[in-house]
Amino acid sequence: MMLRFNRLAAGVAVGLACVTPSTHAGTRLCEAGPPIVDGQPAPVWEGDFDGDGKPDRLWVRPPGTPLGFVEMAADPWTGFRRRYNIREAALIVAHGHRCSVIQHPRFFSTPIWEAADKPIKVLHRSDPAIRDWPRLSRRWRGDGVLLGTEAGIDELLLWDGRRWRIARSGDTP
């Protein structure tokens, strides 16, 4: 009886592991693509954000937009991962069939991020403006994403080969 129970428990555990949302969540999120906002698809920015030589896409998922499943979000401002919060806006970076969800409770809740035109600019590796980020230019892979702030000083979102990071400019307002 105990042997049968263990086999059954092992079978159920393997079955659950195969359909756990965390194993397929990124695929579903990428397949869903950018949300519809005010009857129009959300803007999409393109670049090679992870440095693999393949085009990637980035879009903003507005607050109140459910994912339909549990998803983990990266918070490069703190360096931690946490559960996706439906009440907060998020950046979605789609690399092929996988996605990264980037969220921070304070950064994306400022008025500049509530406007229709999002303060996002792609910083390509070939762009001469990369010289404005000399300490980081050797460490990051792929293209960076300049995120606007209320103070007018951009923050740079970049992939370093292992995780998403935020770099702040040395400029002050």
Kindly list the characteristics that best describe this protein:
173 residues, 3 helices, alpha+beta, four-stranded antiparallel beta sheet
Structure notes:
It is a single chain. With 173 residues, the protein is of the alpha+beta class. It has one domain. It is 20% helix and 31% strand. Strand 10 and strand 11 form a beta hairpin. It is globular, with a radius of gyration of 19 Å.
Secondary structure topology:
Blueprint: H1 2-19, H2 21-32, E1 36-37, E2 40-41, E3 45-47, E4 56-61, E5 72-75, E6 80-83, E7 90-95, E8 98-102, H3 111-114, E9 120-123, E10 141-147, E11 155-159, E12 164-168
Antiparallel strand pairs: 1-2, 3-4, 4-7, 5-6, 7-8, 9-10, 10-11, 11-12
Structural class: alpha+beta
Instruction: Quickly count the domains.
Output: 1
**What's the helix count?**
3
Please trace the helix and strand order, writing H or E for each element: HHEEEEEEEEHEEEE
β-strand amount: 25-35%
The end-to-end distance, rounded to whole angstroms, is: 71 Å
